[in-house]
Amino acid sequence: MAEFQGKTAVISGGAEGIGFSIARAMGAQGMNIVLGDIDPVQLEKAVATLTAQDVPVLGVVMDVTQPAQWQALARQASERFGNIHMLVNNAGVGGGTGTVEQISERDWRWVLDVNLMGVIYGTQTVVPLIKQHGEGGWLINVASMAGMVGVPYAGAYTATKVAVVGMSESWFAELQPHHIKVSVLCPAFVQTRINLSERNRQAGYQHAEDATEQDAAIAARMQAIIDNGLAVDVVGERVVEAVRQGELYIFTHPNYRKVVQQRYQAIDDAFARAADSPLLASVLDEDIVGFT
């Protein structure tokens, strides 16, 4: 608890779900909590809950796709609590599901801007503030098992989560000299409302397409899967446990290990085939550049 006591965490999408679970868990460790969220009603409830638990908390209504709103959140957090030590890039949307042809450009833009650009804007805004005070800290990015294994009919969501995993791996090495520990959380199904992301779709990404019977069937199936998912409070506790241990990859569903192993076995097999190709014999003994 001592390593977190009195330090400040900024959590996007922190008013409910995984973000709020992490907020509660970190608050119980003695951290000051700054919640950024697009939903003012849910945010007010979250702030009230943490306040009742004697957690120092600040709630800021904000849209992660807007860099200026990130700047405003960081300014308010600094004014209230001083130095910032932890950033949790949690805000995300499920986005549209469907075939390659069915997911519209507007859906792609929405998912990319929230799930990918929101992480980039948050990191570019807050990490320099963590560097400034020189005490080190933590960057936690929320991805998904979809960042490890592609999910059919969820191309936009998968693309963003693969990107978040890759950026986290890159930043893990980059931020080590600054004593900023990077982790990427990759949960499978958790009892949240991410399948109801449409409730918070910003005006600029709206479309007038009517829901089909197929859409309704997919939604009902997804709801059943999520209802049987991991209890969300477990996720926050798992994050605390893994961050303490300095883990880069934080997994919440060890039963998915075999799925990821199958993927990496397929990759390793592909490397073996490349090594056997006479076309590539000249590169077998070359030094590996840029991946140390």
TrEMBL record:
The keyword DNA repair does not apply. One of its GO terms (molecular function) is oxidoreductase activity. Keywords: NADP, Oxidoreductase. The keyword NADP applies. InterPro entries: NAD(P)-bd_dom_sf, SDR_fam. Belongs to the short-chain dehydrogenases/reductases (SDR) family. This is Oxidoreductase. It comes from marine sediment metagenome. The lineage of its organism: unclassified sequences, metagenomes, ecological metagenomes.
